[in-house]
């Protein structure tokens, strides 16, 4: 999983512009990863469309590879759907947990209580599950392990009574976490019961607890709980298993809420606050996308801030001088050493690196550095009109920069190649240009 996405991205290496086929290929692999991770089909389609539109419309900034640019778009569009984590103020509040039987509510109640206690608050768990035999003992034990206050009543059969008495009994606590009963499926009885409990405790936060393996059933569940009590956030449990929890995205989208916590094991400490980057990277089976996205962002803004006169778009209209090439190289350097950028995408970095001779990356980087030094030794006129640089100037530049004449000629050659490529685009009508870019 994810490896074919990496494979597809590898084929984009070195491209500065993506064709429609390139974008289609990337989107197809993303779709595959997301569907395998149980993300809802219509959500996947929606996401595909927005990625496609942006990837074809927006141009990669100078010095940014098309691949990095498309990954940045993917990351941003995913964040838009996944959202930031649910805001949990560190103050007195009441939290109600809802969800089907076995989803992990009781475990999560104790985990959250543990989490709040570590933040310096005084939590209490109130167990209202009178449906499942053993629910009281289980909750009590978990709360002992978490070293947090617990209330339950094994002799009382009405969950609403337990909730009321529990709130009174634990009134010294800051944070009340109310655990509820689940059922095997969505039954009217369950919904009626949780509506009543909700009415009594009037929670500040109602969280829906999901097993990461929930899959496509998430939509209907989320809709019903949303209708009954209004869902403010989601907790995804059992993320320590193989399931990636993509169903939660459906729930978040359906309830217009966000993800609050992740459960990553059976002990009370196995709880994490949700954080979009890790979750998205995991869904796609990719490395740290946020870091990459931020680097592209930085390269963009720094290039722009430094030289307001320099606009990558101008290259398409006028001539491509050595100055333009210098700007592109500077922007690339700001993203950090090439091998590091590639390493941020595990598999991609590793895979491609293995295929290259050991010092291939070094050569590229050294060559770039030489080019920079050479350009520093060139006059303004030579930079503007590199075609006019003759043999005697090459000798002078070589001496001035301490670089071989051969390297100076390579730089001029490289510039000529880039200029010729760009020339093919110039002189076309806008329509031709767009058609060609979409190819
Ligand atoms: P409830 O019926 O919704 O209250 O669910 P429980 O809290 O009783 O959890 C059901 C089962 O899932 C129990 O065996 C838990 O130990 C297990 N469980 C809950 N959360 C996690 C988790 O994050 N990881 C793992 N591996 N198991 C979990
Ligand atoms: Mg339970």
Automatic annotation (TrEMBL):
GO biological process: SRP-dependent cotranslational protein targeting to membrane
SRP54-type proteins GTP-binding domain: residues covered: 92-285
Region span, Disordered: 382-403
Residue intervals of the AAA+ ATPase domain: 91-275
Function in brief: Involved in targeting and insertion of nascent membrane proteins into the cytoplasmic membrane. Binds to the hydrophobic signal sequence of the ribosome-nascent chain (RNC) as it emerges from the ribosomes. The SRP-RNC complex is then targeted to the cytoplasmic membrane where it interacts with the SRP receptor FtsY.
Swiss-Prot/TrEMBL domain comment: Composed of three domains: the N-terminal N domain, which is responsible for interactions with the ribosome, the central G domain, which binds GTP, and the C-terminal M domain, which binds the RNA and the signal sequence of the RNC.
Chain residues that bind GTP: 99-106, 179-183, 237-240
GO MF terms, alphabetically ordered: 7S RNA binding; GTP binding; GTPase activity
Family per similarity comment: Belongs to the GTP-binding SRP family. SRP54 subfamily.
InterPro entries per UniProt: AAA+_ATPase, P-loop_NTPase, Signal_recog_part_SRP54_M_sf, Signal_recog_particl_SRP54_hlx, Signal_recog_particle_SRP54_M, SRP/SRP_N, SRP54, SRP54_GTPase_dom
Sequence ranges assigned to domain Signal recognition particle SRP54 helical bundle in this UniProt record: 1-82
Full protein name: Signal recognition particle 54 kDa protein
CDD domains, A to Z: SRP54_G
Catalytic activity: GTP + H2O = GDP + phosphate + H(+)
Assembly and binders: Part of the signal recognition particle protein translocation system, which is composed of SRP and FtsY. Archaeal SRP consists of a 7S RNA molecule of 300 nucleotides and two protein subunits: SRP54 and SRP19.
Pfam family, one: SRP_SPB
Sequence intervals crossing the membrane: none
Keyword line: Cytoplasm, GTP-binding, Hydrolase, Nucleotide-binding, Ribonucleoprotein, RNA-binding, Signal recognition particle
Compartments, record wording: Cytoplasm
């Amino acid at each position: 999983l994810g490896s074919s996405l990496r494979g597809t991205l590898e084929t984009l290496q070195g491209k500065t512009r993506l064709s429609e086929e390139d974008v289609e290929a990337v989107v197809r692999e993303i779709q595959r990863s997301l569907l395998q991770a149980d993300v809802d089909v219509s959500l996947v389609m929606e996401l595909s469309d927005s990625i496609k539109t942006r990837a074809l419309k927006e141009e990669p900034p100078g010095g940014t590879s098309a691949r990095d640019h498309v990954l940045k778009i993917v990351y941003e569009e995913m964040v838009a759907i996944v959202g930031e984590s649910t805001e949990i103020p560190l103050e007195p509040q009441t939290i109600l947990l809802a969800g089907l039987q076995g989803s992990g509510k009781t475990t999560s109640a104790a985990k959250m209580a543990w989490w709040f206690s570590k933040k310096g608050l005084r939590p209490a768990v109130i167990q209202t599950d009178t449906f499942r035999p053993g629910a009281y003992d289980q909750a009590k034990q978990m709360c002992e392990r978490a070293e947090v206050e617990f209330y339950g009543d094994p002799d009382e059969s009405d969950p609403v009574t337990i909730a009321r008495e529990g709130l009174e009994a634990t009134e010294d606590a800051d944070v009340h976490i109310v655990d509820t009963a689940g059922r095997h499926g969505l039954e009217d009885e369950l919904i009626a019961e949780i509506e009543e409990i909700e009415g009594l405790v009037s929670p500040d936060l109602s969280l829906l607890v999901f097993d990461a393996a929930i899959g496509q059933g998430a939509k209907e569940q989320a809709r019903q709980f949303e209708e009954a009590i209004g869902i403010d956030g989601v907790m995804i449990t059992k993320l320590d298993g193989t399931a990636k929890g993509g169903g939660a995205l459906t729930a978040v989208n359906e309830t217009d809420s966000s993800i609050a916590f992740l459960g990553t094991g059976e002990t009370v400490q196995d709880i994490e606050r949700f954080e979009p980057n890790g979750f998205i990277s995991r869904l796609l089976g990719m490395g740290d996308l946020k870091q990459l996205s931020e680097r592209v962002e930085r390269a963009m803004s720094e290039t722009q801030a430094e030289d307001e006169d320099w606009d990558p778009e101008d290259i398409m209209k006028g001539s491509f001088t050595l100055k333009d090439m210098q700007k592109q190289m500077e922007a690339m350097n700001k993203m950090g050493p090439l091998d590091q950028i590639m390493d941020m995408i595990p598999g991609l970095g590793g895979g491609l690196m293995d295929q290259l001779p050991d010092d291939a990356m070094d050569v590229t980087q050294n060559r770039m550095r030489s080019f920079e030094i050479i350009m520093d030794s060139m006059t303004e006129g030579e930079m503007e009109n590199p075609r006019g640089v003759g043999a005697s100037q090459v000798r002078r530049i070589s001496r001035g920069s301490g670089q071989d004449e051969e390297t100076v000629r390579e730089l001029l050659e490289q510039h000529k190649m880039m200029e010729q490529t760009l020339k093919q685009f110039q002189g076309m009508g806008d329509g031709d240009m767009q058609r060609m870019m979409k190819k």
